[in-house]
Design brief:
The radius of gyration is 25 Å and the shape is globular. Strands 6-5-3-14-12-11-10-9-8-7 form a ten-stranded antiparallel beta sheet. A two-stranded antiparallel ribbon has the order 1-2. By secondary structure, it is mainly beta. It is built from four helices and 14 strands.
Length: about 260
């Protein structure tokens, strides 16, 4: 029997050949497949998407972040907020932000203050490896620095977060950008600049780019809104941070809301 006829018979008997009857291995999410026939040997070569090939390595990026901030217990910082959102006008605001690992946050201000919880403050505990399915997206160069983009899919429900895309500067283990996809079609992108405070790199500026369905009551509450009509609300919130106090020993009780006094 000729070698080519033998190869065809083996391919018909092999269960690996069956996907071709349904449209090929691309139906299974595999971008390419090559069969190489040699006397008495069939070699299968799979060309997998980068997200599949890199899954065994991506954990190290989040593990490096966790190690970098393992000693951070809490911080206090002054924050200034500038709003540039098309649907309402608001004055610049100032406040003081208190944060304690893993997820306690409080803001004090002399005025009514809208403060974005998603992306508005730095919480390294948000990126724990065990909380996500992590997919590699691509290597990028940002400001001349090598970075990696990762897609994080929460394993459990996390408030309004459906997925995160992180851009991490690999040399310094810094999260430079966070793209947050929220429920209800809300999208937030955070661009982060850092300074050194004690032994930690912490944000000195966070720019939030908003793209929300109109109208978001919790956003416009307390502000002068423009007439409705737009299908989406877009804009920017610029936040600057100064006067950090790190690991001052904040107590859990500090973050509890005071109960209203009975008349």
């Amino acid at each position: 029997m000729a070698p080519s006829s033998l190869l065809k018979q083996r391919n018909r008997k092999s269960p690996l050949s069956s996907p071709f009857k349904r449209g090929g291995w691309r139906d299974l999410g595999i971008s390419g497949l090559v069969w190489v026939g040699l006397p008495g040997l069939i070699v299968l070569s799979l060309f997998l998407p980068p997200s599949v090939l890199a899954q065994g390595d991506v954990a190290r990026y989040l593990e490096a972040l966790e190690k970098e901030y393992s000693g951070l217990k809490d911080y206090i910082v002054d924050v200034s907020i500038h709003f540039d959102i098309e649907t309402f006008k608001a004055p610049d605001l100032k406040g003081r932000l208190y944060f304690k690992v893993p997820d306690k946050m409080k803001v004090e201000s002399k005025r009514v203050l809208f403060f974005p919880r998603e992306g508005g403050y730095f919480n390294p505990a948000l990126f724990k490896r065990e909380d996500y399915t992590v997919l590699f997206l691509e290597n990028v160069t940002r400001g001349g620095k090598k970075s990696v983009k990762l897609r994080l899919l929460p394993k459990k429900k996390m408030r309004d977060i459906q997925e995160l895309v992180l851009t991490i500067e690999t040399e310094r283990n810094q999260v430079r950008e966070i793209d947050v996809a929220q429920s209800g079609g809300r999208e937030v992108k955070a661009e982060i600049a850092y300074g050194t405070f004690g032994q930690f790199e912490l944000p000195t500026r966070i720019n939030l780019l908003l793209d929300y369905p109109a109208v978001e009551p919790e956003i416009v509450k307390g502000f002068d809104t423009s007439p409705p009509g737009a299908k989406r609300v877009t804009g920017r919130i610029e936040m600057t941070y100064s006067n950090y106090k790190v690991n001052s020993g904040l107590k859990d009780a500090f973050f509890k809301e005071a109960e209203p006094q009975k008349p």
